[in-house]
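step=encode ok
step=design start
structure_in=
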């Protein structure tokens, strides 16, 4: 099992691949702010898929964490699952309420709010 705690504090995603030297085919991985993460050297031996995998590391870590949470809920007791579902239902109801409000305001703006 991967110890995801040891990766806490890593640079935030997304990471991007930047070609640094077209002669030696050395590539640089940078974060979304342009901060240097690492260099990948190896000439033509470093295939694009390997570079993409390194650049995708933060997204892959986030997905591992998300799936672990989902698995924990799935394996939890029925009462715990019900609590999670009830929480999610409340969140969805809140979002539906916001959407209905926004829709009501949009209709009012388009067609006016007064009785005729």
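sequence_out=
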């Amino acid at each position: 099992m991967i110890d995801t705690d040891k990766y806490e504090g890593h640079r935030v995603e997304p990471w991007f691949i930047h070609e640094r030297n077209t002669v030696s085919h050395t590539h640089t991985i940078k974060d979304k702010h342009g901060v240097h993460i690492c260099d990948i050297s190896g000439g033509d031996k470093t295939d694009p898929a390997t570079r993409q995998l390194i650049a995708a590391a933060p997204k892959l870590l986030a997905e591992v964490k998300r799936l672990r949470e989902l698995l924990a809920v799935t394996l939890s007791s029925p009462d715990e699952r019900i609590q999670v579902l009830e929480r999610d239902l409340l969140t969805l109801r809140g979002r539906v309420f916001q959407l209905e409000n926004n829709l009501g305001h949009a209709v009012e703006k388009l067609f006016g709010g007064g009785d005729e």
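step=design ok
step=annotate ok -> The mean pLDDT is 82.
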